[in-house]
Amino acid sequence: MSPGRCGASGDADRALADVLADERLKIVASLIRTTGDWDLAEDAVADALERALERWPQDGVPANPAAWLTTTARRRAIDLLRRAGTERRKLEELAALDTEEVAPMPERTAVADDRLRLVFTCCHPALSMEARVALTLKVVAGMSTPAVARAFLVSEATMGQRLLRAKQRIAHTGIPYRVPAGDDLAERLDGVLAVLYLVFTEGWSARSDDALAEEAIRLARLLVTLLPDADEARSLLALMELQHARRDARRVDGELVTLEHQDRTRWDRDAIERAFTRLAARAAERGPYRIQAELAAVHARALDATATDWQAIVELYDELLELHPTPVVALNRAIAIGMFHGPRAGLAALDAVAEDPRLDGLHLVAAARADLLQRAGRPAKAVSQLDQAIALAPTDQERRQLAQRRADLS
Predict the structure, then answer these.
(1) Which CATH number applies to 309-410?
(2) How far apart are CA 138 and CA 37, in angstroms?
C-alpha cells in the first residue's frame, strides 16, 4: 500500500472513530424507535460502519460523515425489513425517514432525546440487573457480545442468550421505549445510575478491567450531557473520576496497594480537578452519590494519608448512613471513627456493625478489625483477624495483599 493510501486509510479510520463515538448511539436509538427491532437497528448500524471502513479509504471521508453513516444505516434497515416481509406501513415510515435530509444531530437537554429513551429502556426495573447491565454495554455502549461476555466472565453463548431474553422481555411485556415523566424520572434515574456504577465497579474490582471502567465513565458523561440538571448523575461521574484517577497507584507490579500506602504523585490530577469542578455546583438535594463523591474528594485533597481530614469523613459517613443505611456504609463509618477518635472507638463501632448478619462472610470486616487492632498495639489478635480475612477473600490479588500485610505484621 502506498504512503498516500496509508494516510487516507488513517484519516478514514480516525473520522470513522469520531463519528462512531458521537453518532452511533443516536442512529441506533433512532432506528429502534422507528422499527421497534433492536437487532435490526444494531445490524444496520454495524453494516454501515463496515461499508464506511471499505469505502472511505478509497473514496475519501464524506463532507458530512455522520449523515453518510445515518443514511447508509437507514437504507440497510429498509433492505432488512423488506427481506423479512415486514408490513407495508413500517416500510413506508422508514422509507420516508430515509428521504429526509440528515443534518448533524445537536446535543439536546430535553428528555425526549432518543438516546435517553434507549438508556432508560435498557435499565428498566422489569429487567434483572444482569440483563440491564448486559443490554447497556451491548446496545448503548456498542460493545460486542464476546466483549460483554469476557467482562462478566461468562461464555459468548451464555451472554448471547441473556441478551436475547432481555430483548424478548422488552418486546413481550410491553416495556415502553420512552423516558419516564415527572416524579417517576428521579426514581428511574436512580436505577440507571446503579447500572452505570455497577459497570464501573466491575472494572474497578480486584481483577481490574480499565476498559470497562472507562466505558462506564463515558456513559456517565453522556448522561450528564443529556440531563445537565441531574446532580446525582454529575456526582456519580465525579465519584468515578476520583476513583479512576488512582488507577496507576492502586497496583504496583500487579499487586494491590491500599489507599493509605499509594504513591499520590501517580494520581491523575487532571481527572481529580475535573471532578472537583463538577462538585463545585450546588445541589438542591444531597443524594448518596453526591456524598460518596465528596468522601472521595476529601481523600483526593490530602497530600498524604496523614493529612486526611478524618473528621470530615466521619461527618460525611454520618450523613450517608442516615440517607443510605446499609451495613457496608456502617462498616466504612466504623473505620473512619477509628481513624478520627482512635482505634478503641473504632473497634467498638465495628463490633456493633459486625452483628449485622448481612456482613457474614465478608472479608472486609476481619481486615478492618485487623487494622484497628494493629493500631491499638495488639498485633497477635491482628494476625488472627488477617488469617480470617485471607480465608474469606474472594480473589487471589486480595489474598496476596492480605498475606503481605500479615507477613509485615509478623
Answers:
(1) 1.25.40.10
(2) 15
